TrEMBL record:
Major localization listed first in the record, in broad terms: cytoplasm
Signal peptide interval: 1-19
Organism expressing this protein natively: Monodon monoceros
Keywords from the named record: Cytoplasm, Glycoprotein, Membrane, Nucleus, Signal, Signal transduction inhibitor, Ubl conjugation
CDD domains, per database record: RGS_RZ-like
GO biological process entries: G protein-coupled receptor signaling pathway; negative regulation of signal transduction
The keyword Membrane is annotated on this UniProt entry: yes
Subcellular location(s) of the protein: Cytoplasm; Membrane; Nucleus
Keyword Membrane assigned: yes
Pfam families in alphabetical order: RGS
Name this protein carries in UniProt: RGS domain-containing protein
SMART domains: RGS
Length: 160
């Protein structure tokens, strides 16, 4: 993997500093100990997404977020539409953003498409979450994107 050029890295770091709620240095460091905590923090998810983009696996996070959005939905028509869009965007073998799922989970999804519900992708979502946690997250913590962000929050905290 090629390193991100310094100007782009500065741009990425700067864009996160513009968040409405800047994470503290301690919060950013705590992400390294707790994947769930990082995923709940908007700045953490955004930074992780930038990293996944460099690894060409951003679709995993986008799928997970789409499932989170679907689970909040109550309107049956909207659920059906969102479930169909998630299928087309992330499950279909024809999609350029297809996520990697085992055949058992795919079979369950195909059955659930007959009568979509807000929780129909939970098994798939868990499988992708686990993949990100075990596979991408350790590399993220060793990435220049994360290390530079840690440094930038540490220096902005010490300047305050």
């Amino acid at each position: 993997m090629l390193p991100i050029p310094a100007p782009k890295l500065l741009l990425i770091t700067a864009s996160f500093c513009l968040c409405s709620q800047n994470p503290t240095s301690d919060e950013v460091l705590s992400w390294s100990q707790n994947f769930d905590k990082m995923m709940k923090a908007p700045a953490g998810r955004n930074l992780f997404r930038e990293f996944l983009r460099t690894e060409y696996s951003e679709e995993n996070l986008l799928f997970w977020l789409a499932c989170e959005d679907l689970k909040k939905e109550q309107n049956k028509k909207v659920i059906e539409e969102k479930a169909r869009m998630i299928y087309e965007d992330y499950i279909s073998i024809l999609s350029p953003k297809e996520v990697s799922l085992d055949s058992r989970v795919r079979e369950v999804i195909n059955r659930n498409l007959l009568d979509p519900n807000a929780h129909m992708y939970e098994d798939a979502q868990l499988q992708i979450y686990t993949l990100m946690h075990r596979d991408s997250f350790p590399r993220f913590l060793n990435s220049q994107i994360y290390k530079s962000f840690v440094e930038s929050t540490a220096s902005s905290t010490s300047e305050s």
